[in-house]
Amino acid sequence: MDYQLDLDWPDFLQRYWQKRPVVLKRGFKHFVDPISPDELAGLAMEPEVDSRLVSHQNGKWQVSHGPFESYDHLGESNWSLLVQAVDHWHEASAALMRPFRFLPDWRIDDLMISFSVPGGGVGPHFDQYDVFIIQGTGRRRWRVGDKVPMKQHCPHPDLLQVEPFDAIIDEEMEPGDILYIPPGFPHEGYSLENAVNYSVGFRAPSGRELISGFADYVLAHELGSHRFSDPAVQGRDCPATILPQEIAGIRQMMLDVINQPDHFEQWFGEFISQSRHELDIAPPEPPYQPDEIYDALQQGDTLTRLGGLRVLRIGDTVFVNGEQIESVHQQALNSLAHHSVVRQEDFADALDDPSFLAQLAALVNSGYWFFGDE
Ligand code: SIN
Ligand code: CO
């Protein structure tokens, strides 16, 4: 299914992106759910899939984590099943993220899908990331409040909520409606009937994650071996004192480690092209020989990218799931980065180069691309 999003992107970016929430009425016209509630419930029974059940009764909240063995104990109201990164496990659902690729791939995270019965929801809360919440089957009332400093509390150890808030958006969403919420705006979805919601979530690294990720790279590549030196060390009244210029020197030393553009780019490409959620990797058995890949593509077979695999470009370098891919065949690399399905003509003459064909075979044999349509 090819989802067509009816949105004026430049206008949306200027007025709403990271600024304020908005309902995009009928963002998807004639919306058809890519997955059924039964299929979603089935996914939440798989051990690799990250899922939770949230319920409440008389103001008391309960959270349990998948994999689930049965749903028999659930009543007809006040619960919601939430499944993370469904795009990694369900190709048809992954198609729902593609219309959002006006925004850069590196900022997009995953597709979370929820199924709620009447009264179901996770309660009032805010998130750290931008999200587009698409209404699928059913109607759900969504309320969004203004971004003001708010105290968070935990009605259950696994649930972070905020106090009730005044709504700046209060809308009963219908299939195909989209609610965009920037980080920090409190919101709550309250189901009026059985309802499915699709959340296209974004990713925004924190300074802490960046420093920690860069530190790992520095260690792995044995960078930063240069030591502090002070040929012009100064005396001081009290030997216990560290002088401001010494602090400045230390700070500069650390900045110098970061300030190596080639390493910095390579680190960031590796770092940001890693998925935050498990991938459904199933390497082909037996592995393909490069000439088999060549023949299949010549015959018109297509290669499909594994759902959730991150393929990103910095300049002429492409990063796939944390690894740098180098090649002189820029057009072929660009095709791999740009399209979720690639075919022979996307590779131009790169397929005639045995070294490129070997790289492509390695990617297929890693389970990152597979033959067949979605
Ligand atoms: C949902 O219940 O579908 C979305 C939960 C959220 O607001 O993050
Ligand atoms: Co939320």
Features of this protein?
374 residues, binds succinic acid, 3 domains, 9 helices, eight-stranded antiparallel sheet, globular, three-stranded antiparallel sheet, Jelly Rolls, Malonyl-Coenzyme A Acyl Carrier Protein, domain 2, alpha+beta, binds cobalt (II) ion
N/C terminus separation: 10 Å
Dominant shape: globular
CATH class of the largest domain: Mainly Beta
Structure class: alpha+beta
The percentage of residues in β strands lies in: 15-25%
The strand order across the widest sheet is 1-11-6-13-5-4-2-3
Architecture (CATH level 2) name of the largest domain: Sandwich
CATH homologous superfamily title of the largest domain: Cupin
Biggest β-sheet: count, sense, barrel? 8 strands, antiparallel
The CATH topology of the largest domain corresponds to Jelly Rolls
Taken in chain order, the helices and strands follow as HEHEEEHEEEEEEEEEHHHHEEEEHEHE
Mean pLDDT: 96
Flag low-confidence runs.
none
Q: Helix count, per DSSP?
A: 9
- Radius of gyration, rounded? 25 Å
Which percent bin holds the helix content?
10-25%
Bound compounds, each kind once, are: succinic acid, cobalt (II) ion
Keywords: Dioxygenase, Iron, Metal-binding, Oxidoreductase, Ribonucleoprotein, Ribosomal protein
Cofactor: Fe(2+)
Pfam families: JmjC_2, WHD_ROXA
InterPro entries: JmjC_dom, NO66-like, ROXA-like_wH
